[in-house]
Write a structure and sequence with these properties.
The protein is an all-alpha fold and 312 residues long. Helix content is 73%, strand content 0%. It has 14 helices and no strands. The relative contact order is 0.14.
Length: 312
Amino acid sequence: MTTESTAAETSAPVTAKSPRALAWQRRRHSAARFWKQYRTHRAGVFGLAALALFALIALTAPLTVGSDVQSVTNAPGDPMESPSSAFPLGTDQFGRNLLGLVVWGARVSLLVGLLAAVLSVAIGALIGITAGHFRGWYATVMMRITDWFLVMPTLVLAIALATVMSRSLGTIILAIGVTTWPTTARLVRAQTLAVESRPYIERSKALGGGHWHIMSRHVLPNVMPLVLAQTTLIISSAILAEATLAFLGLGDPTVVSWGGLLQDAREAGAVSAGKWWYLVPPGVAIAVVALAFTLCGRAVESVLNPKLGVAR
């Protein structure tokens, strides 16, 4: 009896996994392999830890400092007080707590940087993939437009857009996004050309695969690692651009951001008056977040393309 049951169990067919389950299993293995390699980059891990800390600070700002920290009428201190036990980073020109303002400003600066980078990469990836796939006159026109944006100063174009449009966060995001995509477009187009030269693309065309099928099922998955790495690198540039536009007075005056705090410090004469506590905290926050995103981007680039030889 035991022998028969054992033989029956041995001869029972193994249930095959569905294609969806196999796809998710491969994705989990790829993610685990990516994280294992990413952890070997000490600079990347440091950058990721710094970003996680800033994200936690930004998300918990309503609980830790409250939205009333932006109020000018209910400011708890005197204008431009030096750091003390009551105000660890001092106060601004209205008597508001600078520590609370820096914490609250992280929400706006990180949000604008992320959304502007996503918009920039989306435009660049779309133009790069389509120009690499269709080629001909379409690719020529798109690449000439890309070259024009590359030679034009990005900051000047962003300032021009922010000047003619209404002063809001949406304007800042749009101004940064539509002026920083050319680098991504050229990188993605080069990768698209490399992917479409592979034999399986020819087989897909021979089997009747259309343009959308080839671009979405074959090209896009192969360029996504490059897009991901480019996104992490562009976020730091977007945060710096937002700070620059806000410092020039082109940001939304109704919200608190790190660049806006620097603009307020300049208008209040903090530089000439030697009120260093008004300038240093937002400036250091911008520098640390930009550096953290750059470190993460370089680590991601090194993991996805080991030939780059990025230092660990």
